[in-house]
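A reminder from the course coordinator: this example appears on the midterm review sheet, so study it carefully.

Given structure:
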């Protein structure tokens, strides 16, 4: 993910910061002592004095290994259709996973990786050089979008610091350790100390689990024979498969933490919406019941998920199902919920008219 990629590019080195901290403070205090004593307000209004301190500019020479660390780019997901997919299967172009049984349960492809899709997301809302980066780093401090620098408050407060001011270590260029300096400020920059957003942490937790698209089937089955106009159609989706059953319908739990705040989530399918391929939509509250030809229900309507009126006209139709997941979250004294979806591939059904033969 972009957040982790950006952090990997910086490669925080606590030891490097600690070793150079004393020298930075000593040089900074020496450069700022005279103006601080004579006219403290000028310090806040005269950044060129701080920028002109030549000893600070020598800091990048102490950290060339950091510049050598190559950035890690997050590879975008690539949708791949397996050669084993039957001809009637069509996977949604924006989804990296697709499961269809076609005529017989178990004929579909593998479960895929269950990528986060539209439920994914990270907690960072800060950017530098076109990349999303963490707004807070345990080593570097808080990021300021205005100048592209991280601000870390120097604690304990160094001796000789003027009243009403504090020393900060600035790591600029989006967290480049070779671009550090110390600054004396009368106030932190905007956004400094902002707590994490629980809702963003909830989406971060969601990105850590797999929500797979449904494995679908219908009856009548194409390989057995065509259905008839006006007769009921059964639809169902598997709650199990090659992966764990809860990957298809839930419930699933996960959590994410940031700066002492932990958010818990629970994800579960609350409804399945079927597109019957003729403009009709059918919504079911669960996975449905698999059709069995030797069941007492054979020839009747599905007890929980079906197109009861049947197709009004003969033809070949493509059926698709979408599971709607409700993700509930809580943490930091707040709670909420949001919805994400997973869509199956299409399965084909043929419908004929009843032919009456008279003699």
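Designed residues:
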């Amino acid at each position: 993910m972009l957040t982790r990629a950006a952090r990997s590019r910086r490669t925080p080195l606590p030891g490097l910061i600690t070793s150079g901290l004393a020298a930075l403070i000593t040089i900074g205090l020496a450069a700022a002592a005279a103006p601080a004593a004579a006219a403290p307000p000028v310090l806040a209004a005269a950044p060129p004095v701080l920028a002109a301190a030549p000893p600070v500019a020598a800091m990048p020479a102490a950290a060339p290994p950091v510049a050598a660390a190559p950035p890690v780019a997050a590879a975008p997901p690539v949708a791949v259709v397996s050669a084993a997919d039957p001809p009637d299967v069509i996977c949604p172009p924006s989804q990296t996973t697709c499961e269809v049984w076609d005529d017989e349960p178990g004929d579909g492809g593998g479960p895929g990786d269950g990528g986060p899709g539209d439920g994914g997301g990270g907690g960072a809302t800060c950017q530098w050089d076109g990349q999303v980066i963490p707004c807070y780093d345990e080593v570097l401090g808080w990021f300021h979008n205005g100048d592209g620098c991280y601000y870390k408050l120097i604690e304990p407060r160094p001796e000789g610091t003027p009243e009403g001011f504090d020393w900060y270590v600035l790591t600029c260029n989006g967290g480049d350790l070779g671009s550090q300096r110390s600054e004396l400020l009368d106030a932190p920059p905007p956004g400094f100390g902002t707590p994490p957003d629980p809702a963003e942490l909830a989406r971060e937790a969601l990105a850590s689990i797999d929500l797979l698209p449904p494995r679908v089937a219908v009856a009548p089955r194409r390989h057995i024979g065509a259905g008839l106009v006006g007769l009921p159609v059964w639809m169902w989706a598997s709650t199990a498969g090659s992966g764990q059953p809860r990957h298809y319908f839930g419930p699933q739990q996960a959590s994410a933490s940031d700066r002492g705040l932990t958010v818990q989530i629970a994800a579960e399918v609350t409804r399945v919406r079927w597109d019957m391929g003729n403009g009709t939509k059918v919504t079911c509250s669960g996975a449905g019941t698999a059709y069995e030809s030797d069941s007492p229900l054979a020839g009747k309507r599905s007890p929980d998920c079906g197109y009861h009126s049947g197709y009004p006209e003969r033809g070949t139709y493509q059926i698709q199902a979408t599971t709607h997941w409700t993700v509930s979250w809580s943490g930091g004294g707040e709670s909420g919920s949001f919805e994400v979806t997973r869509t199956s591939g299409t399965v084909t059904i043929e419908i004929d008219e009843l032919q009456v033969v008279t003699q």
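The first strand starts at residue 126 and ends at 128. The chain has a mean pLDDT of 71.
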